[in-house]
Amino acid sequence: MARILVTGGLGVVGAGLVRELRERHHEVIACDLAHQSDEVAFGLPGDLREPRYARCDVSEFRQLARLFDHFGRFDYVFHCAAEFGRWNGEDFYETLWRTNVIGTKHLLRLQESHRFRLIHFSSSEIYGDYPALMVEHITDEVEIKQLNDYAMSKWVNEMQIRNAIEQRGVESVVVRLFNTYGPGEYYSPYRSVNCRFLYCALHGLPWTVYRGHARTSTFLADTVRTVANLVERFKAGETYNIGGDRLHTIEELSDAVLKVTGASPTLARYAESEPLTTKTKLVDTTKAIRDLDHRNTYSLEEGLRITADWMRQAYKLA
Asked: Is 77 within the bounds of a domain?
């Protein structure tokens, strides 16, 4: 059994990872921005014998250091905490840079003294305008144009981690997620395209389908199972793509959403290619399959159907 911290533990991926790791009988502490019923009380007598959560903004070093002082040693830290998404990064760029870059630097400084193994969550966005098969090593060989602040911040994170490895001898792994979606992802206009299309379809709202783009989709359960395997299969210094095994166009995604929800096809509005957005994200997951037993066990239609059923319950539509 390992002792593990998951930052961003209330997020879509973070919450799924916390559940997966606890089901594997690891001792898991989560942290995020909101208060929770199972959180530690730092400045007053607490009511819980064994709190499993801490409110903590990773961009505030005092809060992060206090967490480590209170809970003590961790074997692994899964760093999920981040501001997510291209347009979120445009509209809230101050928070994006503070959380993603300063927050990660805080964690790296604590890694120097606490010597935990770090698993950092990066993004497929760091492949920017690269037009071919996205293999992990390509970022070391090709100068890639980053297309938005979110992508830039995640690439900066990877550079921060590389420097920490070189300078401090710490052990870290980077995982680059490709379009992960599933139950637990509540709608906002900044969420994944899969989430937004499903939400709009179930609520009778129109959505825009940009032609000329292709992606893979990774069901949440497959992503967290693969990443959780790093506890037993940690190889310091590695970078892994975690993605789907079937490329689909955004038009095909929209059609699948229409099929699983029964929504009217008139809700789908079509527009030409979106500027400063990668045309095709064709991912190579060979390393993750080899080292982490990565498997895509849900088809796109099956994953969308499960997520749609969860949304109906979550939004009381059923």
From this structure: yes
Beta carbons of 75 and 117 less than 8 angstroms apart: yes
Q: What is the CATH number of the domain that holds 61?
A: 3.40.50.720
Task: Give how many domains the chain has, as a whole number.
Answer: 1
Could you give the residue ranges of the DSSP H alpha helices within the chain? Answer: 12-23, 61-71, 86-91, 93-97, 103-114, 138-141, 149-168, 193-203, 220-228, 230-233, 250-261, 286-292, 300-314
Domain of 227? 3-182+217-244+283-297
Contact predicate 150/85, CB 8 Å: yes
| Token pair recorded at residue 86 | 């291209």
One-letter identity of residue 261: T
CA angle 213, 269, 131 (to 5 degrees): 5
Q: Tell me the per-residue pLDDT of 63-90, one tens digit each, with 9 for 90 and over.
A: 999 999 999 999 999 999 999 999 999 9
Do strands 248-249 and 214-215 pair parallel, antiparallel, or not at all (unpaired)?
antiparallel
Q: What was the pLDDT predicted at 19?
A: 98
Quick one: residue 146, left, alpha or beta (phi over 0 = left, psi -120 to 50 = alpha)?
beta
Q: Are 227 and 180 in contact (CB under 8 A)?
A: no
Q: 176: which 2 tokens? A: 């680059």
Residue 194 lies in a domain: no
Residue 216 main-chain phi, psi, to 5 deg: -105, 160
* Tokens linked to 302: 């099956």
User: d(Cα 107, Cα 187) in Å, to the nearest integer?
Assistant: 29
Instruction: Report how far residue 136's alpha carbon sits from residue 284's, in angstroms, rounded to the nearest whole number.
Output: 8
Structure tokens at 138: 């390509």
Q: Is residue 293 part of a domain?
A: yes
DSSP state of 280: B
What span, in angstroms and rounded, lies between the C-alpha atoms of 214 and 200? 20
pTM for the model stands at 0.96
Q: What are the phi and psi torsion angles at 211 (to 5°)?
A: -75, 155
Q: Residue written as tokens 């997020």?
A: 11
